[in-house]
Amino acid sequence: MTERLYYTDAETLEFDARVTESANTGGQPSVVLDRTAFFPTSGGQPFDTGTLGDAQVVDVIDEGERIVHVLSMPLEPGRLVHGAIDAARRRDHMQQHTGQHILSAAFDRLFASRTVGFHLGADACTIDLAKPVPAADVERAVDEANRVVWEDRPVVVRFASADQARAAGLRKESQRDGELRLVEVADFDLSACGGTHVARTGAIGIIAVTGTEKVKGGLRVSFVCGRRALDQLRLLRDAVSGSLRALSVLPAELPDAIRRLQADSKTLRKRASDLQVALAGQEAERLLALAARNEAAAIVATVLDGWEAAGLRAIASSLIARGPMQVVLATREPPVSIVVAQSSATGADAAGVVARLTALFGGRGGGNRELAQAGGLHGAPQAIVEAGRDALRE
């Protein structure tokens, strides 16, 4: 059995322990210790990293009574080793996880919207709420959570039986029996949890919601705490400052300036597309003069620079109207758009060719035997064209 030092003191970042077992886990050396401060992946929280002696700890796995440490090099059984936790990673996880408890409790207390999922990622964290919450109420919950953070309330870890925990009023009922580890934010939240947490809420610094999205009848809330919130603020500051300089507008004018740019861009794209359609007949004449030929049809298979899908379709339609033709046209810019067309006299199936190309290169499309198109293909444009030409010949 491994004694879990992080259960009683998450601030323990260095410790000494004895290797009780050496093994191989997933092709890498691993050890079990008699005691450890390394937190294993559990409950939505990632594992700690750091060192055991000269070995790097690259994964930590909870196997019930044992904690397995996956290492960069083997350590022999019986050896005494000094462990050191990556302090920045541990403290970041403590901020995020305790922040999650407080934010989840705020949604539960204010709007009876319970947390049914939690993920602590490398850059951001999410909670999934059981029911949707309006945007204004999300901000109310964030304000309430930060009030608790700034009051610097104590966060206490204690142990209790399942019956005692239920009687104490857990925010979320635990499905485990036996002794439970309880994490209590004074006068605000009580949860059964095995994760690492700060000793006082003030150490979280701030809880900032960065976005929301509807999921499975509820709401997914993305958030960051502490140092992550500072990093996010810096990214946002740099992005906004760069945008203001590029557009020569004041901060309050930025949203309208972006909307104007989007509208102008849409108008220009539509105008360019209309011009390409108007020029399609001339481009078809040029391509026809360069077309290869076989006994059944003229063949045009090429990549066209600067043309969009609507223009390709107009060129292909113009070409197949001029006699027996087989046509494969592709855009140059990724992801690639294609148009496949053929005169009915050739007996080919344009839709079948497009289906084959999307199976090979991805993307989506459709059409009929005479003309079909697809977008979102990934691959060298010329290779896509050649594959389409070969398919038409079959």
Which architecture of the largest domain would the CATH scheme give at its second level? 2-Layer Sandwich
> Roughly what percent helix?
25-40%
Give the CATH class of the largest domain.
Alpha Beta
Query: Biggest sheet, in brief?
Result: 6 strands, antiparallel, barrel
Beta-strand percent range: 25-35%
According to CATH, the fold-level topology of the largest domain is Threonyl-tRNA Synthetase, Chain A, domain 2
> What distance lies between the first and last C-alpha atoms, to the nearest angstrom?
67 Å
Low-confidence stretches: none
Outline the structure in words.
With 394 residues, the protein is of the alpha+beta class. It folds into three domains: 83 residues, Elongation Factor Tu (Ef-tu), domain 3 (Beta Barrel), CATH 2.40.30; 144 residues, Threonyl-tRNA Synthetase, Chain A, domain 2, CATH 3.30.980; 118 residues, Diaminopimelate Epimerase, Chain A, domain 1 (Roll). The chain has eight helices and 21 strands. The strands form five sheets. A six-stranded antiparallel β-barrel has the order 2-3-7-6-5-8. A six-stranded mixed beta sheet has the order 16-17-18-19-21-20, sandwiched between helices. The chain has a four-stranded antiparallel beta sheet with strand order 9-10-15-14. A hairpin with a 4-residue loop joins strand 16 and strand 17. Helix 1 packs across helix 2, helix 5 runs parallel beside helix 6 and helix 7 crosses helix 8. The protein is elongated and about 85 Å long. The protein starts with a strand and ends with a helix.
